[in-house]
Amino acid sequence: MSSMSTLTSMLCAVAFAFPAWAAADDVPPALAEWQGAWRLQSVRRGESSRDLADEPLQCMVKGDKFLYGDEEFATLKVAGEGAVKTIDLVFRGSDDAKEGIYSIEKETLKICLNWDEGGVKERPLDFVTQGHPARRIVEFRRVAEPQPEAETPALGFVGMALKPDDTQQGIVIQGVLEGSPAKKAGIEKDDLLQEIDGTKVTDLSATVVRVRQAKPGSEITIKVKRQDEAKEFKVKVGVFPIRALFE
Q: Is residue 88 one of the residues assigned to a domain?
C-alpha cells in the first residue's frame, strides 16, 4: 500500500564461508557474497529509523538482480575492492542509478544511498544520514534457511492512498497510483471505499492491513460509491513495491 512511509540507503553483511551457490561461474566475484536471501531489517532517513524486522520482507539476490516476491525490483552494480565498496542501484522502471556504498560484515548487509531526485549526484563516503536529507541507509540480515520462493510471503499491493471519511460511511480514496492494480481496475480518486470481499470497511488501519495481507496474484472485490452510484471492481493484487520504502 502507498500509505507506508519511505526512506533509502542500505547496509550489507555476509559470512566469510560463502554457500555453494555464491561461487557460480556466471556471478562476478564482487557479487558472490551478495547471492542468496536477505531479510530487510530497517531503513534510516535523517535522524529517524523504521524497524521492519517483523515484516515479511525476504528479498533474493540472483546474479545482479534484486528480487522480492519472485519479482525483480532492482539491478545492482558493485565494486567490492578498495577502502570504499561502491554500489549503483537501478530500480525497475527507472534509468536513474542511485549511487551508494556498502559494507559486508558477518551476516549483515549495509548500504548507504544518495536518493536525491534530479539533483547533483554525490556518492556517500560514510554511513551517516544526519545532516544529509537525501541519504538512506538500509540494513539487511542474511537468511540462513530461506523459504522456497513459491512459499515466501510478500506484502500485497493495490495502489490506493486512503483517508478517513468524516461521514463515517466508508473510507475516501485519496489517490490512485498510476499503473497500479487499482488504477487498472478502474478505481478513481474520491471514490468512497465501502467493502472489500463483502466485508464493510470503516477502520483505516484495519483496511490497510487487510489489503497488505492479500496474497499477490489473488483477486479481491472492491465496492465503492461514486457520486451516489455503487460500483464494484475486481482487482488483481500485486506485489508491494519495495522502492516505496526508500523514498
A: yes
- Cα 247 to chain centroid distance, Å, stands at 10
Residue-number span of the structural domain to which 115 is assigned: 11-151
Q: How many helices (H) and strands (E) does the chain have?
A: 2, 18
Q: Nine-digit cell at 91?
A: 530500480
Contact in structure between 207 and 171 (CB atoms under 8 Å)? yes
The type of residue at 155 is: L
Nearest to 186, CA basis, from 134, 130, 243, 232: 232
What's residue 151's pLDDT? 57
Q: Which residue has the cell 517483523?
A: 54
Q: Specify the 3-state DSSP secondary structure of 212.
A: helix
**Local confidence band at 82 (pLDDT 50, 70, 90 cut-offs):** confident
> Residue 210 sits in a domain of what CATH number?
2.30.42.10
The gap from C-alpha 155 to its chain's centroid, in whole angstroms, comes to: 9
Q: How far apart are CA 184 and CA 160, in angstroms?
A: 12
Is 22 found in the same domain as 84? yes
DSSP for 75-101, please give it: EEEEE--SSSEEEEEEETT---PEEEE
Closest CA to 38 of 55, 23, 62, 60: 60
**Spatial separation of the C-alpha atoms in residues 154 and 216, rounded to whole Å:** 7
pTM of the model: 0.76
C-alpha cell at 107: 551476516
- Cell numbers at residue 116, please? 536525491
CA neighbor of 173 nearest in space, from 194, 195, 192: 192
